[in-house]
């Protein structure tokens, strides 16, 4: 997996008005960090998958949202769609080099989320019930 050796800028080096509304970074961030976008990218980190495999892996995604997310990530250059000229039709999805570079950065984030999710969700529900009491 190819990972960029460039250094991520410190928060102090981001432009004033962190990510102004019209900034292209906001659009890319929205695509990458959407609920389904993130799950699809992480799902493809272990190799190519067919439509039905991705739908099973991203449990709860509708056909419409899966199609829309795949198209968006393909247009952004993160995934490739490989349609095989066979009957029945076969389409495989995989990460591009850009997608592999991005996913290498997302996997540690996902690992952290998985490691801490129960604790965070548990403490949030405990806090809510204390407020309601």
Summarize it.
With 133 residues, the chain is mainly alpha-helical. The protein is built from 5 helices and 3 strands, in the order ααβααββα.
Architecture overview:
The protein is mainly alpha-helical and 133 residues long. The protein has one domain (23-132): Orthogonal Bundle (Arc Repressor Mutant, subunit A). The chain contains five helices and three strands; from the N terminus they run H-H-E-H-H-E-E-H. It has helices at residues 24-33, 35-43, 51-57, 63-75, 97-132; strands at residues 49-50, 79-84, 90-95. A three-stranded antiparallel sheet has the order 1-3-2. A hairpin with a 5-residue loop joins strand 2 (79-84) and strand 3 (90-95). Helix 2 packs across helix 4 (63-75).
What's the gyration radius in Å?
Answer: 18 Å
Q: Provide the CATH superfamily.
A: Winged helix-like DNA-binding domain superfamily/Winged helix DNA-binding domain
CATH uppermost class? Mainly Alpha
Strand order in space, largest sheet:
1-3-2
CATH architectural category: Orthogonal Bundle
Number of strands: 3
Helix content: 55-70%
- Mean pLDDT comes to 85
What is the SS-derived class? mainly alpha
Q: What is the molecular shape?
A: globular
Report the biggest beta sheet as strand number plus sense, adding barrel if it closes.
3 strands, antiparallel
Which stretches of 5+ consecutive residues score pLDDT under 50?
1-5
């Amino acid at each position: 997996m190819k990972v960029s050796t460039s250094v991520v800028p410190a928060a102090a080096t981001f432009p004033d008005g962190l990510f102004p509304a019209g900034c292209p970074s906001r659009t890319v961030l929205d695509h990458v960090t959407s609920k389904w976008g993130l799950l699809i990218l992480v799902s493809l980190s272990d190799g190519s998958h067919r439509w039905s495999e991705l739908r099973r892996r991203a449990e709860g995604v509708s056909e419409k949202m899966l199609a829309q997310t795949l198209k968006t990530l393909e247009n952004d250059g993160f995934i490739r769609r490989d349609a095989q000229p066979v009957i029945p039709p076969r389409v495989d999805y995989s990460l591009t080099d850009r997608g592999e570079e991005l996913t290498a950065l997302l996997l540690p984030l996902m690992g952290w989320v998985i490691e801490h999710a129960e604790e965070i969700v548990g403490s949030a529900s405990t806090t809510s019930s204390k407020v309601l009491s």
